[in-house]
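S.,

Sequence below, as promised.
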Amino acid sequence: MNYICKHCGSENTAKNGKKIGGTVQQIYCKDCGRSSSVKIGEEQEQPAAKPINQGISEAQLRAKHDNKYKVNAAVRKLKPGNFIPESEFLRLADIKPGAGYRTAIDAEEFQKYKGKAGGVIYWSSMDSILKLKNEGVLQ
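The prediction came back faster than expected:
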């Protein structure tokens, strides 16, 4: 019997053990990575239609396509006292020049993580950038 993922509607599932005295089958979805359970012998409802994202979660879609999400993820990786040039930051964020990338990089909420010196834009932790801006090293 093929089981259907309750979360994304995919049939790309695998049995993942039983619980409650062997009357409930645990199901693991290979597409969305989530687990669910089904009573053994109970018919599953077929979803009306598969979602457009084909089992990819919103977070996975954002991580792949949303530059602002990528910038946020990269900002969380910045360590105090480490300064990296913008080209390295873009590599860390896995952002390639294209539509919307400059808007994400220049978004107001990310200004506190970058400063400029000698024509080079540097990224670091908010405290490190603020300290050097106050000392006049970065603009």
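Residues 13-55 form one domain.

Coffee later?
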